[in-house]
Amino acid sequence: MVQFSSPPRRERPSAAFNRRHLLLLAFLAVSTPLFVQVVLGAAIAPSTSEAMELLSRPGSAAASRNYHGVVRTPKSSVMRLEGDPDLLSAEGETEVSEEAVQVKNRMNAADYPIKDRTPDVNHPMVKKWVSEIDWSKVPDIPVAPSLPDVLHFPKCPPDEEVDRDSCWWSCDGCVQQSDVVTCPNQNDWGLTYDDGPSEATRNMMQHLNARRLSATFFIVGSRVLEYPDILKEQAQQGHHIAMHTWSHAGLTTLTNEQIVAEIRWSEKIIRDVTGLTMKYVRPPYGDVDNRVREILRQMGYITVIWTVGWDTNDWRIAMHQIMAPQIVSTFRGALDSRGQIRSFSGNPAGPITLEHDLTAGTIALSKEIIPIGMSRGLRPMSLDRCLNDPYPYQDVSRGVHSTTSINTHPNTAPAGGNSTSSDPSNSIDPHGGSTNDHATPESAATNDDHSDAKSDAMVLTGFQSLGYAAMGLTAVASYMLIL
Prior knowledge:
Layout: H1 15-44, H2 48-55, E1 64-65, E2 70-72, E3 79-80, E4 87-88, E5 93-95, H3 98-106, H4 124-131, E6 146-147, E7 150-154, H5 169-172, E8 188-190, E9 192-196, H6 199-210, E10 216-219, H7 221-226, H8 228-236, E11 240-243, H9 256-274, E12 280-281, H10 290-298, E13 302-303, H11 315-318, H12 324-336, E14 355-356, H13 360-375, E15 379-381, H14 383-386, H15 441-482
Parallel strand pairs: 8-15, 9-10, 9-14, 10-11, 12-13
Antiparallel strand pairs: 1-2, 2-5, 3-4, 6-7
C-alpha cells in the first residue's frame, strides 16, 4: 500500500480550473458595471418621502443632483408643495445651465416674505407701496369671508344676498369690460398656465418650444423662491410672464393693504430674476371684485380671468377627483360649441383656457389637448399674442415682447401685428405645413409622448433586470469555483 505524507502536488493548473477562473472573471466583468448601475440608481433616486422633504426646503429645485449639473428626480413620484393644494410631480432629467444655477444660488429667502403666507403689511416697503395708492378711488366693498376649512378661499353668500354692484366674479360671474376673458380673433387660443414655476414647467416648455409655441405663465411669487432658474428660462425662451400673487390667496378675502403686499412682493421677486415688470394679473380662483380691480389698476395691472367653459379643471387629476379622459371629452365638447364664444361687446371671440404647470398629469393632459384644438382650427399662443399687445410688460424698455418671443403666427406680421387671415385652412401649423396637412396631429403627438415614456420605462426596467441576473450568475460562478 502506498502512503502519502502530503497531498499530491499539482505541477500546473488543470484545464477545468482555468475554465472556472475564466468563467468567474467573465461574469465579474459583465456584472460589476450592471451591479453598480443598480446600486447607484437606488442611491440617486430617493424615495417619495425623501423627495417631499427635500422639496419642502426653501430653494430646493429637485430631490437630488447627479453629475454634470443634471437634475434628477424619481420617476412617477408625487411631491406636495407647502401651502399649495396642487401636487408637484417631477420626472425624468433636465439639463440645467450654469447661468440658471447661478441665478438660484443668488436668491436669498431672507430678502422676501415667508413663502405661501400673506406678507406682513407692517413691513416698511409695504407701507411705501400702500402710500402710492389713491384710496379715494377704491370702492368701499367689505372684505369677503373665507371658507372655514380653506383660508383665503372666498365664501359666497346666498345668491339673493350677493352685492351686484361689486361685480364679484367668484360669486355671480360678473365681468367688467376691462377684464380679459377672450381673444379678439375667434381662431386664436390663449394658452395660459397657473401656479408655477415648478420642475414640471420645464417639461411643458420643452414641449412648447419643440412646436414653436409660446404661452403665458401666471407666476406665484412663492414658487420663484424655489425655482428662480426655471422662471429665468421661461423669460429667456420668449414665454409671456404674468402675475399670480405671492401666496395664491383669494384677493377679495384680503384687506387693501394685504392685496398691495401680495402683488408688489411677487412683482419684486419676478423683476429681480427677469428684469421684467408684469402687466397682466390673474387673481387666484378668478376671485376679483371692483375693489380688487381698482387696486390692481392703480398698480398698473390688467385683470385676466378665462373663458367660461374653458377651465380644464386639470388640478383635480392630482386630487383624484377626475380622470384625464373626462377632461378631454369636456374639451371636445367646448370645441363643438366654440362658435358661441363672444367678447364683452358681443363679437365672435377665441377662448382663453385655464391650465396648470405643476404636475406631470396636468402637463400630459395639456400635451394631449393642444393638438386636438389645433386640428379644429385653433391657434394656441401666449396671451399677449392673442390680444395683439406689442408691449406686454409695464416697463417696455426692459421687455418689448417682439424681440424675445417665439412667433406663434409664422405666416403673419411680427409680434403685436394683426393676423392676416382668420381662415384656419390658410394658416401655418407650427408643426410645419398648413393645418390641413395633418389629418391626425392629436394622435401623432400623443403617441410620441406615450412612446417616449414607454421607452424610458423599458430601458430602466431592462437595466435593472440585467443587473439582478448578472448578480445571480456571479453567485453561481463563485459556487462553482469553490466546488
